[in-house]
Design goal:
Blueprint: E1 14-22, E2 27-37, E3 46-52, E4 65-69, H1 71-92
Length: 97
């Protein structure tokens, strides 16, 4: 991802995640960078950012998505992710770490 918009550091949440990009006339699987963060000084919201690798993607220009959450929304999303992670672990026969 040489044309990356997001900075990737030791603190980036996920440096490499699978992503499915869909449009009306295309669908492609690639990698993405995902980061959950908040501003260091005077944070006003929690940010969930992701950027799909556009090196092989021909339908989308280089871009980054950013979702902004209140603390309550961030906790609701985290709880939902935990619940679904547990379901997938159970289905795959894995145990929680």
């Amino acid at each position: 991802m040489a044309d990356r918009l997001m900075r990737v550091t030791a603190y980036t949440t996920l440096e490499l995640a699978d992503v499915l990009v869909k449009g009306h006339d295309f669908e492609t699987e690639q990698y993405a960078v995902v980061d959950a963060t908040a501003d260091r000084k005077s944070p006003e919201h929690v940010k969930l950012q992701f950027e799909a690798d556009n090196m092989t993607e021909t339908h989308l220009p280089a871009h980054m998505e950013e979702l902004r959450f209140t603390p309550e929304q961030a906790r609701a999303l985290a709880a939902d992710l935990e619940e679904h992670a547990a379901r997938v672990e159970t289905a795959l026969g894995e145990s929680s770490a």
